[in-house]
Design goal:
Layout (H helix, E strand, L loop, with lengths): L1 E6 L11 H8 L2 E5 L5 E3 L6 E4 L8 E6 L2 E7 L4 H18 L3 E4 L2 E4 L3 H24 L6 E4 L4 E4 L1 H7 L3 H12 L4 E2 L3 E5 L2 E7 L6 E4 L14 E5 L5 E3 H7 L3 E5 L2 E4 L3 H11 L4
Parallel strand pairs: 11-14, 13-15
Antiparallel strand pairs: 1-6, 1-7, 2-3, 2-4, 4-5, 5-6, 7-8, 9-10, 12-13, 14-18, 15-16, 17-18
Helix pairs in contact: 2-3
Length: 276
């Protein structure tokens, strides 16, 4: 679920804006998502994320359709990010000396922004309520939402904390994404004709790690084996690795958080390392 806006410009537009100029106008931080939807700070691409540091939620996606500027915001999100989305639209329109932009519902004027903000706030609240109903009734165990920094899984525990409140949703998203952690995601290799997923972690590295291995959005199917790689290329079968972890914290509905000591890494290597 998302809301999108388009600001028209053409090749001969004397006020045509580049991506770099849009970033500067917005006054926001920026980055791109890698293949596992983890943030790479201060890089730009075909789809660039704008976000407020210290208020990390979903991010505002910027792209171009030929010359036209496209802005997209995933819902549900925080009130602050909804306001930020439309403030970015306003800033771009002001620079281009236009009051018109194309919205989901058709052409809009800058004066329409307060009503659009209220609509998106209601839609975000409604989306949270819908997620809660589906999880509460065990229709789904959890939902994954894509934050600025990484995907976050919302289950009963998370949705009870959020309580269909956008302010609490904002606090929750910012709290998890502000943690100084490494969000481990697998890379997939063809190992002797078998698709193999490999995670990475190391000693003294606060690591967010899945309780069961998976590929986000099922981008790759048919993975037959899962491993965890430590430094100097030592690989541990996933089930042996996850069974070894004792000192861990809950992170979200799909992930735990842990920090391995040097001694624990050595024990893993000594007892479980295999050649692949």
């Amino acid at each position: 679920m998302s809301v999108a806006a388009e600001i028209k410009q053409d090749q001969n537009d004397s006020k045509k804006l580049t991506l770099e100029e849009i970033i500067q106008i917005s006054g926001l931080s920026y980055g791109i998502a890698d293949a596992s939807y983890r943030l790479i700070d201060n890089e730009t691409g075909d789809y660039t994320l704008l976000f407020e540091t210290g208020r990390l939620a979903r991010g505002i996606e910027v792209s171009f359709d030929q010359e036209n500027i496209l802005l997209r915001l995933s819902l549900p999100t925080s009130r602050e990010e909804i306001h930020c989305f439309y403030e970015t639209i306003r800033k771009i329109c002001d620079r281009k000396e236009t009051r018109q932009f194309l919205h989901e519902e058709g052409w809009k004027d800058l004066d329409d922004i307060p009503g659009l903000i209220e609509n998106d706030i209601r839609a975000s609240t409604g989306a949270l309520e819908d997620l809660w109903e589906k999880v509460k009734e065990d229709e789904y165990k959890h939902f994954q939402v894509f934050g600025v920094c990484f995907p976050i899984s919302l289950g009963k525990r998370e949705l009870e904390e959020i309580a269909n409140d956008l302010n609490q949703f904002a606090d929750f998203m910012n709290r998890l994404q502000s943690m100084n952690v490494y969000y481990s995601a697998p890379k997939v290799y063809d190992v002797r004709g078998r698709l193999t997923g490999i995670y990475f972690t190391d000693a003294n590295l606060p690591t967010v790690f899945p309780t069961e291995p998976y590929i986000v959005m099922n981008q790759v199917e048919g993975i037959e084996e899962w491993y965890v790689m430590l430094k100097d290329q030592r690989t541990i079968p996933y089930q042996d690795f996850i069974g070894f972890i004792r000192d861990m914290e809950y992170f979200d509905a799909d992930h735990i958080l842990f920090v391995l000591t040097e001694e624990e890494v050595q024990m893993l290597a000594d007892h479980y390392a295999v050649e692949i």
